[in-house]
């Protein structure tokens, strides 16, 4: 009897594994609970504010947001999210839902799940110090199958953020600083994303990071460490770096990898001949960083189920908000040129895509 009671007490006191944010969620942000158990609220209008708007829907915590409308919500100002929130863009009918013209902010919030949402800031936002998506000082955040374009400061700002996953997403065509993502604190997971035509920060990782099965195209600097910002560990596995017309130094696929960084790099490829074909070769050179013989994170190897070549096919077919729209189709078409097309933009209007560069939903 004593043994049975002891076992029971131990079981009650032992920590339990948290449920995943959704079926198939991976990485450090997969512990996000979002609006689980809360109220389901349906967005019924594309208006910036008022009854039935997205702004009204995200103004309170413990909500699951769904959509009965499709198209773009044009923001008049930054959209601030509450904590404990799930945004299910996949519930929108037709071609889906998008946000344009201002920042989406989860700054300082916790437990955020965002899926199948297009966040496209662009020059319609007069505040050039804002990013397309800002989760600074937030915790437990997962973005999945999102499309994030035309960020002015960064595409994704995650300074001071704890437990992040960005998966199956398109992070492309940043304007202004032309930066992809800035992460500090962490840890973070970047998994099966498509990064296109950025000057730098794809991402800038000032944290312990998993970077698995990503594709980076037409970069000037791709995976970037914190340089002298501190000692961090990086698992960089099965990624494909493809140079383009804007790439000046192909070896900047790994950038600022100094002696303060510890890196496990395996199965990565670099295609730098820009001949219109995907025909790169193995590339795992990480500068002066300390080379790890095994991943620092216990689940990195199990997440890396695709080779770098397989990652290209998968990411080009599946990344971004679904169904894929005009702008994402344009982005993917540039990557499929394998070195012959692409440029760094300063404005969405320069792309030639309809609706002033935002594309038509």
From TrEMBL:
Leader peptide range in chain numbering: 1-19
Keyword Cell membrane carried by entry: no
InterPro entries in the record: Pectin_lyas_fold (IPR012334), Pectin_lyase_fold/virulence (IPR011050), Polysaccharide_Lyase_1 (IPR052063)
Keywords in alphabetical order: Calcium, Glycoprotein, Metal-binding, Signal
SUPFAM superfamilies: Pectin lyase-like (SSF51126)
Entry superkingdom: Eukaryota
Cofactor(s) of this protein: Ca(2+)
Entry's Gene Ontology molecular function annotations: metal ion binding
PANTHER family: PECTATE LYASE C-RELATED
Protein name according to UniProt: Pectate lyase C
High-level lineage: Eukaryota, Fungi, Dikarya, Ascomycota, Pezizomycotina
């Amino acid at each position: 009897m004593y043994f049975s009671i002891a076992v029971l007490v131990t079981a009650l006191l032992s920590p339990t594994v948290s449920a995943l944010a959704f079926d198939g969620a991976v990485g450090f942000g997969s512990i996000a609970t979002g609006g689980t158990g809360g109220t389901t609220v349906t967005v019924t209008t594309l208006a910036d504010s008022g009854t039935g708007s997205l702004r009204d829907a995200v103004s309170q915590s413990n909500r699951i947001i769904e959509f009965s409308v499709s198209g773009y919500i044009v923001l008049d100002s930054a959209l601030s999210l509450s904590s404990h929130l799930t945004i299910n863009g996949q519930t929108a009918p037709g071609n889906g839902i998008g946000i344009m013209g201002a920042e989406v902010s989860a700054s300082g919030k916790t437990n955020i799940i965002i899926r199948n949402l297009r966040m496209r800031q662009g020059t319609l936002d007069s505040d050039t110090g804002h990013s397309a998506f800002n989760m600074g000082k937030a915790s437990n955040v997962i973005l999945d199958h999102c499309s994030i374009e035309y960020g002015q400061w960064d595409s994704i700002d995650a300074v001071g953020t704890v437990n992040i996953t960005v998966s199956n997403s398109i992070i492309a065509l940043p304007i202004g600083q032309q930066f992809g993502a800035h992460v500090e604190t962490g840890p973070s997971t970047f998994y099966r994303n498509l990064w296109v035509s950025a000057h730098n920060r794809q991402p800038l990782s000032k944290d312990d990071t998993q970077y698995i099965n990503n594709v980076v195209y037409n970069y000037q600097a791709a995976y970037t460490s914190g340089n002298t910002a501190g000692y961090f560990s990086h698992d960089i596995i099965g990624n494909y770096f493809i140079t383009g017309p804007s790439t000046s130094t192909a070896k900047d696929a790994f950038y600022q990898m100094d002696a303060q960084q510890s890196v496990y790099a395996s199965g990565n490829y670099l295609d730098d001949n820009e001949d219109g074909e995907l025909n790169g070769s193995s590339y795992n050179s990480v500068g002066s960083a300390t080379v790890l013989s095994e991943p620092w994170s216990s689940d990195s190897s199990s997440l890396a189920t695709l080779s770098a070549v397989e990652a290209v096919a998968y990411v080009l077919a599946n990344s971004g908000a679904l169904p894929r729209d005009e702008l994402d189709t344009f982005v993917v078409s540039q990557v499929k040129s394998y070195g012959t097309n692409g440029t760094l933009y300063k404005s969405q209007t320069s792309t030639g895509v309809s609706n002033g560069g935002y594309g038509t939903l």
